[in-house]
Amino acid sequence: MALKDTTDHTAHPWSRCEFGKTLFSEGECQRPGVDQLNGSLLCVPHAKRLRLEVREDMLHGTVFEMDKWLDNPNNRADQLHWQRVLGQRDEVLEQLRFNRTLLEAHKEAIQQR
C-alpha cells in the first residue's frame, strides 16, 4: 500500500503530530497530525498555537519598526503623521496583548487535555 501525500487536512491514522520535533517543543505530542503547517504535520491544537506564536512574532516586529520610526527625530517634523503612527502603534500593542492572552489560554487548554 503506497503512502498518500498529506498536504490536505487528512492524515493517516498512524501519522502523529510533529509538534515535539519543532523549535517550540515540550515533548512529543501523541495526537494524530491533521493539519499541514510550514512543512510539519500538526494536530489542530498545536497548529493553532503555532499560528498564534507566528502572529505574536509578526506583531513584535511591527512594534519594533514603528518604535524605530517614532524615535527618529526627522519624523517629528510632521506632528500629525507622527501622532497617527503613535496611535497605530498603540493599536498593534493592544492586538499583541490580546494575542498573548489567547496564546496563554490556548497553552493551558492543551496542557489540560
If you had to describe this structure to a student in words, what would you say it looks like?
It is built from 2 helices and 2 strands. The protein is mainly alpha-helical. The chain has a domain of 68 residues. Strands 1-2 form a two-stranded antiparallel ribbon. Helix 1 runs antiparallel to helix 2. The longest helix is centred in the last third of the chain and has 34 residues. It is elongated and about 60 Å long.
List keywords for this structure.
2 helices, single chain, 113 residues, two-stranded antiparallel sheet
List the helices and strands and how they pair.
Blueprint: E1 35-37, E2 40-42, H1 44-71, H2 79-112
Antiparallel strand pairs: 1-2
Helix pairs in contact: 1-2
State the helix count.
2
Rounded to the nearest angstrom, the radius of gyration is 20 Å
Largest sheet: 2 strands, antiparallel
Low-confidence stretches: 1-11
Global mean pLDDT: 81
Kindly state the percentage of residues in helix.
40-55%
Strand fraction equals 5-15%
The neighbouring-strand order within the major sheet is 1-2
Q: Calculate the terminal CA-CA distance, rounded to whole Å.
A: 33 Å
Helix/strand class: mainly alpha
- Which shape, going by the Cα principal axes? elongated
Q: Can you write the helix and strand succession as a string?
A: EEHH
Topology, number of strands? 2
